[in-house]
Amino acid sequence: QVYTTLELIRNKPVAANVIPLFLEALATHEGPRLLRLKGLVQIAEMPRQPLVLHGVQHVFYQPTWLERWPSQDHRTRIVLIGHGLSQVWVQRLLEALEAEVATFTVRVD
Question: Quick check: 9 and 82 in contact, CB under 8 A?
Fold first, then answer.
């Protein structure tokens, strides 16, 4: 089998409510092919503390917060390892969820 390693890097913070939607979609659509996911996420609502993501296949562990960033690089970085994963699909999934959440937030406010 061919292993694929993908890295998502976001220069702007991600809204907190995007993360559970993103993880749920990954588990549903890529779970059997997703061997590992690890990441540090800059959350818009708490940009000074990175959110740590960790998952194996379709199981994602409870995200945790670090007290501070381990380096000067505060960008969101998520690494996925799996079989035949699509960089384009994963990137577009995250972008679509961010756009949907932003649209909903604007309509509600």
Answer: no
